From TrEMBL:
Name assigned to this protein: Acyl carrier protein phosphodiesterase
Species assigned in the record: Panacibacter microcysteis
Pfam families: ACP_PD
Protein's GO biological process: fatty acid biosynthetic process
Tree of life domain: Bacteria
An example Gene Ontology molecular-function term: [acyl-carrier-protein] phosphodiesterase activity
Keywords: Hydrolase, Lipid biosynthesis, Lipid metabolism
Length: 198
């Protein structure tokens, strides 16, 4: 669910971006149906997810959410991270985030024929509702939480998760500040390794 982070951690490389964004929709060996550079993006996404789940800051963020959303706490923590990335003044201004979001949508539409069917179905909503930009706003985060609830098979929608987000806002910010520089450095190194191996 942290689409903004995966887009940002593609380092402006279009094929990496495509793979990074569609990875959750590409199961198992189906990755081999894609061009090699897109495959690298798919693998990069999976490595980012593994690193993220294991990081102590993510575990701390998830622990704050677990009492209200149980096993889905990690998915909600991903959304929380995207909010703090969107509001991180060292990485985005309001204007540059909006421009980044629209460049990302344009790149995805340019690769439309490569996109998995389910991702194609979602893309118009992502662009029309400007998901990547709207992680910046509290209403956008509330909407993104709703998206997690819609995809969760065994979780009933509850406003309690947004209440935790508001109440623990500064604690979540600290988790992001601990986590994001680490994932940025890790991903840059992983991308170079994956390129060498491809």
């Amino acid at each position: 669910m942290n689409y903004l982070a995966h887009a940002y951690l593609s380092f402006g490389q279009t094929d990496i971006l495509i793979g990074n964004m569609i990875s959750d929709y590409v199961k198992g060996k189906r990755k081999f149906e894609y061009p090699p550079a897109v495959q690298t993006g798919i693998m990069l996404h999976r490595n980012i997810d593994t690193f993220t789940d294991a990081h102590p800051a993510t575990k701390q963020a998830a622990a704050l959410l677990k009492p209200v959303v149980g096993a889905y706490a990690g998915a909600f923590a991903d959304v929380v991270y995207d909010h703090f990335l969107a509001t991180d003044v060292q990485r985005f201004t309001d204007e540059s985030l909006n421009a980044f979001a629209h460049r990302t949508y344009e790149a995805l539409y340019a690769a439309y024929d490569l996109l998995p069917e389910r991702f194609r179905g979602m893309l118009p909503y992502m662009k029309q509702q400007n998901w990547l930009y709207n992680y910046r706003t509290l209403s956008g985060i509330e909407s993104s939480f709703g998206g997690v609830f819609r995809r969760a098979k065994y979780l009933e929608h509850t406003p309690a998760v947004y209440n935790v987000f508001e109440k623990q806002y500064e604690a979540f910010r600290e988790c992001y500040n601990d986590f994001f520089p680490a994932v940025y450095a890790y991903t840059a190194a992983q991308l170079e390794l994956l390129k060498k191996d491809s």
